[in-house]
Description:
By secondary structure, the chain is an alpha/beta fold. It has helices at residues 8-27, 33-42, 46-51, 60-68, 75-100, 103-114, 117-123, 129-152, 159-171, 178-190, 197-216, 219-224, 227-238, 245-273, 283-299, 304-307, 314-327, 333-351, 357-362, 377-384, 433-438, and strands at residues 369-373, 393-396, 414-420, 439-447, 450-457.
Amino acid sequence: MISHFRRPRWAVGLLLAAMILLAAPRLGQSLWIDEASSLWFARVPFATLLLHLCDPHPPLFYALLKLWLAVADGEIWLRLLPLLGAALAVMLVYPLGRELCDRRCAWLATGLVALHPLQVWYAGELRMYTWAQALGMLAFLLGVRWLRRLATGSEVGWLPWLYALAAILALFTDYSAFLALGVLQLAALVRGRLFTRQWLALHLAILMPLALWWLLSPQRIVLARSYQPVFVAVQAARFGLTLSPEQAATFMQIATLLLAAAGILAAQMWARQKRDLTAAPAWTPLLALIWLGLLLFMALPRMYSLKRLLVVGLPYLALWLAATLTRRPAPRLAPALTALTLIVTLWMVAAHARDPWRQTLSALRPAEVVWVDDLATPVWVYYSARAEHTWTWQPLYGAELPKLPSLQPDPGGDLLLVTAESPYRTLALLLPAHFSAAYALTEAQHTRGIGVYRYQRRLAPLPLAAQEPPPPLAPLGLRLPSPLDTCGPGQ
């Protein structure tokens, strides 16, 4: 169908419009805690972003969002920024496909990416993942063109420097961009391209700004207590395996090294055999099954902390799949996969929604004092500023429990506790015994990812009593990094 268009821009424009239309219903939804954290970091001074950021992500997206905020701060306007990143990524798939395969392959890959639920979901997510994807693809495209000119002995011109700039911007947007650069190295190995001294020296130069920033900022320490090991430990517990976050971090590091080693070994084997990656007939059903598995994964309503790691790799999987589908006679498989991709995306858009923080907070009845989970503080600040009345509130730091906020209501007064809830973080279950002796629970409300508890302070505290132990996973959530943390280079 796409092949009937004479000019690429018309087909790319239609696919781009389709992605935007699919993402549009989610642009006006409530912010959730991760998105509000992006907004929180974007409002700190530039010096803090560069030298004191307590977040396991590089600062470039937050700096870009800071400039974006100069215009407006409504939900739709904010989410236009990641939508632009997703649109740029879709537009880059076609020229990258033309470099790696052919026109038909490029069209199919562009359609698969534009209609994929992973692309549509993160196109409307106020996080850095679509920009890391787009900048990683730009670096990949420039790197492929540079390698091609090196192989033919043509003049490379500004390509090395443009590639280096795109790579640096991608890495300072998110560390997942390392995947794009790694895939480029493997593609070069498979095609038998020689890595020149210029190639190696430039890659060392690309890593130098990142290494310098790591020395001047607390980033290397923040990464050591990042959230991924906590999530891996939680998922392992669900399968009956006991892992501490430290063990999970070690497991992830070993798995990453093994995956990189396997990729290098496979690339060298293909290079020696002088065979194309799409030549083997078995690749078509294998890649189609991987694509179906990714669609099934996106159909799950949770686990977005893991799904976000796949955003950068999506275009390369789509290109590889498209190359096998257009090389082998499979006239029905390509449209079937495309249609199924669109169906899953439509179902996801209709069935999945973000945690309804705006609706929940706007419906709150006044209370004398509010304690807010430190993870939920950025989203509380964003929506409480739009409330009709003023709140007296203070953060409740999960990592500091059993220490409680100093701000308390008078005896007989109401206390509201607003928390972000999950199977591994429910602060209401971790409150100390002296809190239960001083406060009586009068109301509890639970919506997706949110807990709101209303207490009345007793006129006289009760004697301390033994408490039931919390669920085994609950303390793990206290290990998650807080957006309210402040860090220095030596911490």
